[in-house]
Amino acid sequence: MSNLAITSILEKMTGKDKDYRYMATSDLLNELSKDGFKADNELEVKLSHVVLQQLEDVSGDVSGLAVKCLVPLVKKIGEDRVLEMTNMLFDKLLNGKDQHRDIVSIALKTISSEISSQSLAQRILVLVTPQLIKGITGPGKSTEIKCESLDILCDVLHRFGNLMTKDHAELLSALLSQLNVNQASVRKKSVACIASLSTSLSDNLLAKATADVVQLLKKKNIKPEIIRTNIQMVGAFSRSVGYRFGPHLGETVPLLISYCTSASETDEELREYSLQALESFLLRCPRDISSYCDDILNLTLEYLSYDPNFTDSMDEDTDDEGNMEDEDDESANEYSDDEDVSWKVRRAAAKCLSAIIVSRPEMLSTMYLEACPKLIERFREREENVKMDVFNTFIELLRQTGNVTKGQANFDESSPRFLLKQEVTKIVRSINKQLREKSIKTKVGAFSILKELVVVLPNCLADHVRSLVTGVEKALNDKSSTSNLKIEALTFTRLVLVSHSPSVFHPHIQDLSSPILSAVGERYYKVSAEALRVCGELVHVLRPTFETSAFDFKPYVYTIYKAILARLVNQDQDQEVKECAISCMSLVISVFGDNLQLELPACLPVLVDRMGNEITRLTAVKAFAVIASSPLRVDLSCVLEQVVSELTTFLRKANRALRQVTLGTLNALLVAYGDRISSLAYEVIVVELSMLISDMDLHMTALALELCCTLMTDRKSCESVGLTVRQKVLPQALILIRSSLLQGHALQALQRFYSSLVHSANTSFDVLLDSLLSSAKPSPQSGGLSKQAIYSIAQCVAVLCLAAGDQKCASTVEMLMGILKDDGNSNSAKKHLALLCLGEIGRRKDLSVHLLIENIIIESFQSPFEEIKSAASYALGNIAVGNLSKFLPFILNQIDNQQKKQYLLLHSLKEVISRQSSDKTGQNELQHSYIEKMLALLFNHCESEEEGVRNVVAECLGKIALIEPRNLIPALKVRTTSPAAFTRATAVIAVKYSIVERPEKIDEILYPEISTFLMLIKDNDRHVRRAAVLALSTAAHNKPNLIKGLLPEMLILLYDQTVVKQELIRTVDLGPFKHTVDDGLEIRKAAFECVDTLLDSCLDQVNPSAFIVPYLISGLSEHYDVKMPCHLILSKLADKCPAAVLAVLDSLVEPLEKTINHKPKLDAVKQEVDRNEDMVRSALRSIASLSRISGGDCSLKFKMLINKITSSPTLAEKYNSVWSE
After folding, report:
1. Is 1068 helix (H, G, I), strand (E, B) or coil?
2. How distant is the alpha carbon of residue 1206 from its chain centre?
3. Residue stretches of the chain with pLDDT short of 50
4. DSSP 1076
5. Given CB 3.0 to 4.6 Å as the disulfide criterion, which of 161, 205, 237, 1022 pairs with 201?
6. Selection from 810, 773, 809 nearest residue 793 by Cα
7. Mapping DSSP to helix (H, G, I), strand (E, B) and coil, where does residue 36 land?
8. Among the residues of 822-883, which ranges form H helices?
9. Which residues form a coiled coil (predicted)?
10. Helix (H), strand (E) counts: the chain
11. 965-975 burial, b if ≥16 CB within 10 A, otherwise e?
């Protein structure tokens, strides 16, 4: 639009008619908002003056639109004009009319929020800072002016606090002076302003501000309201600056505790503010508050029941379950006083206690001894909002117990879970009383506690089912119950049914089933869906086994079936309900099918119909898998052919999850009903299966091969099916076996496939063997095979030979030995495969009948090729597993006599010991044979200069220790005092290998001795220290109870290993340049990885705050190898200990920002570029974890980091990718 038209709009804006002015202002807003709008200097002047004039319009609608015009205007006019407008607005704020002050304040806030240029921001700050100080401290300024100035300053500080460094001292002085004024609104806004300012204050100014506030609090004869304001200020400081406030806790915490205990009975707000400040300290300064935690805990427990105006004479220890009607009226007769605000103190105490629980996992056992009984007692709190906070605090206690004890199978008398178990009776008794309250909110909270209790401590409510069933029944049947209450009650019921023995519910089935089935028919879909899930669990409770039992489930079968069928046939309902109905019906048929034979012809076609619907297809396919897996062999004849046909077509669908579930369902159907499925259907399935076998999706491949095995092993499988498998599946299997990715379930499935194929329809063993051996030949396109592919082929050859019988196996072994004997054969790949095949066959079958096989294998130790020597070592060890009495003495004799071959022979011995120690039979075979001779040999090699030899020796010793712990542990303990560092290290690593996940007889022998080995973390030699760290890490992962008692002393020593030690850094002179070598890198990496493991298994022993600063922050700025585990630790801490991370969030930003902005050198090789890419993604994962912490948006630095990431296209793409992982 031309300037002329704009001028016309401006003229209308000054008209007398307010509607004209409104429409003209609206037109101007539209014009200013257009991207192409530009104004010359003259028009800028007119625009700014008219908009400022409109701000004072008598019509509120017009002035409101004028404020909106400022948003685009500030971006479209020059900086000088913005400064002029800001100056005029401040003049109106400080000296203008009272009625215009509100709109002027809004306008100034709008301008400050729209400034995007740093140069303009700095010019405006120079202009506005003196004006704001004048508005706040100027003599004669009204309360309204002060409040508006403080509001604007708060916004300015929040956005530009870092740019106002030179004015910080003056601003701080001005604001602190306002904490003592009489006007409460000014004091309150001053607190908010100082909090915004403190995030960008230097440490010195922060110390000065804190000192001023503390000094004021120490004075006597101060007005109570001034004390309250300054206590609020202390809390606001810690919330804003986090861990930086830590050094000042020594002055503030005792002062707050003192005020809290000495306040007058009527000064509830003082106690509330003190407790709120202490809560903030616990969450934001967890490291520095440690020494005061016990005092704060005692304080919170005292004030949790602070109620001076009410005397509660209830006896909590008596269970009045019979007096339900009396209890119903309890809440109506409670004491009530609108002026009583003591509930605020109790609420603050509950939240403060919650902060201790969340931030101090190491105090959990203390919490159960001191806080838990008090919390249970306070479930009877008369103020509902406070009761919810008490409930939430108790839920936090339960959750923290779950986090800390996750993965721990055993727990002693000091364990939080053991202590919780002792309180279950009291908890249930108190919760039952809450379930009889009238308040819906109270009942919901009570069920929330029960849900968390069952999750943390399964099977803990077996003795209390009767009383809890009554509570559930009432919650579901009561007409006043809300949907939310019903969902909570149903969810709790489902969790209880899953986690307890079915027999405990049998006496209460009648009371339980009726309300649950009524809930199935509820109109609200979430209630109905949850009720259907509960029904699914109820089915298992009614008939836990298919053997005859004392409980008669038959009266309930038809009732449950009818209720679920009504939901199943209804098309007009939510998808969640449809899916739950399908799943539940499949459970009913699989468990009660023998009692529903007349109903099946009506029900099964409905499930088939749901398979045809894309929305419910996946759930319906899973349903048929459940039915087919039932031991009842439910009659599916009416739908079987159609189901198999439908499922076969699903194998072509793009939906991966559907294909996976379909393979599992087909497998279950073929196992159960294979004799009723035609061979033509088998062939069609085989053709579809062949398309799914690829290393692109190994999980899918494993499922497809499993199904193929089922097809071939079926008694009805005819020759045509075997032929189809050979033509379609075998070529794909031969391609798959060459893959370097093949491993795990897919490899095991492939082995079973070859085993099944050799028996299927007279398939030729020789053809299969030849195809396998031929697949190992290098191809012109891809070259030689990977090591993993050759191992895969060898394992399949071994399985094939064993399946074919002794004669075929023997001829194959002779053929393989012939390849090794052939001196003229220079094909190393062929010899490599032959050795691995012999090893795999020898492990599974005794090959001692083949004369001199051991000598033929050991001759390959002379080969010039490393892979052949390694394969020969592997083969020799594995054939010894097949016949210990013959081959083990040979290996030991060779170790004694063949010095040059010792490393390879030790590897062979390691294979023997590793295989034999993995099961009881193998241990018994080895126990009485050659242990002493093996130990003598191994101990002789402890001091070897080669690390590879020492590692093999340590692994052998560790595995033997599993078999003979009473002899080995003392022998290893003696070697921890050896003068040779390598011997000490080998002894510790041996202990590491002896700590396995499964329970072993070594555990009770190692428990009292393990400190001897782990305390070598103080050793002078770095190799020994690293060995101790690795052993500690393994113990923490596999058997945390072994080390829990040592951790208080060990953790400090472990943290010390994460520090860069200059004495371990050396410079190597390489002539033209010098290279720096850090010998401490490996131990630092191991130490951080150990901490990562401890966070999983021993969280209750770790103080996260003491580790984060300075150790983790230092690690985040370290070498690539150290940064990676540090990123994992940070993500884990953000999830498990968010309060500790939140306290130091600002200091984490800098090292993370440097990492994501790091660019490799221009001449960097691809490996360095890839490593850097991995490191950036790892850092972004940590940042994503940090962003999920509630309260993280309080950190200005972290918010700026997120903004930088999202504004960079490259980083934003990676960040979004890791966020969705």
Report:
1. strand
2. 24
3. 1, 314-335
4. E
5. 205
6. 773
7. coil
8. 828-844, 853-859, 866-882
9. none
10. 63, 2
11. beebbeebeeb
Q: What is the pLDDT of residues 25-67, one digit of tens each?
A: 898 889 888 888 888 888 888 888 888 888 888 888 889 999 9
- Tell me the one-letter amino acid at 324: M
Closest C-alpha to 863, from 827, 892, 813, 897: 827
Confidence (pLDDT) at 331? 45
Nearest in space to 803 (alpha carbons), one of 844, 846, 837, 756: 756
pLDDT given at position 3 = 65
- Can you give the pLDDT at residue 921? 66
Q: What is the C-alpha separation between 1049 and 1056, in angstroms, rounded?
A: 12
The answer to whether 1130 touches 229, Cβ cutoff 8 Å, is: no
158-183: pLDDT as tens digits: 888 888 989 999 999 999 999 988 89
Structure tokens at 647: 């499922």
Q: Are the beta carbons of 982 and 942 closer than 8 angstroms?
A: yes
Q: Where are the alpha helices (DSSP H) in 242-383?
A: 249-262, 268-284, 293-303, 324-328, 342-359, 364-366, 372-377
Which residues sit opposite 1067 in a β-bridge? 1076
193 Cβ neighbours under 8 A, 6+ residues apart: 150, 153, 154, 157, 175
The C-alpha atoms of residue 1056 and residue 1115 are separated, in whole angstroms, by 12
User: Hey, what are 1166's tokens?
Assistant: 């691809």
What six digits make up the tokens of 740?
A: 């370097």
Contact 914, 952 (CB under 8 A): no
Is the Cβ–Cβ distance between 515 and 474 less than 8 Å? no
Q: Which helix (DSSP H) or strand (DSSP E) does residue 1069 occupy? A: strand 1065-1069
pLDDT for res 405: 77
Q: Under a CB-based contact definition with an 8 Å cutoff, are residues 581 and 567 in contact?
A: yes
605-634 per-residue burial string, b: 16 or more CB within 10 A, e: under 16: ebbbebbeeeebbbbbbbbbbbbbbbeeeb
Residues constituting the chain = 1221
- Under DSSP, is residue 779 helix (H, G, I), strand (E, B) or coil? strand
CB 834 within 8 A of CB 773: no
- CA quadruple 1138, 1141, 1146, 1151: dihedral sign: negative
570: left (phi over 0), alpha (psi -120 to 50) or beta: beta
The count of other CB atoms within 10 Å of the CB of residue 150 is 24
Joined together, the tokens standing for residue 424 give 């279950």
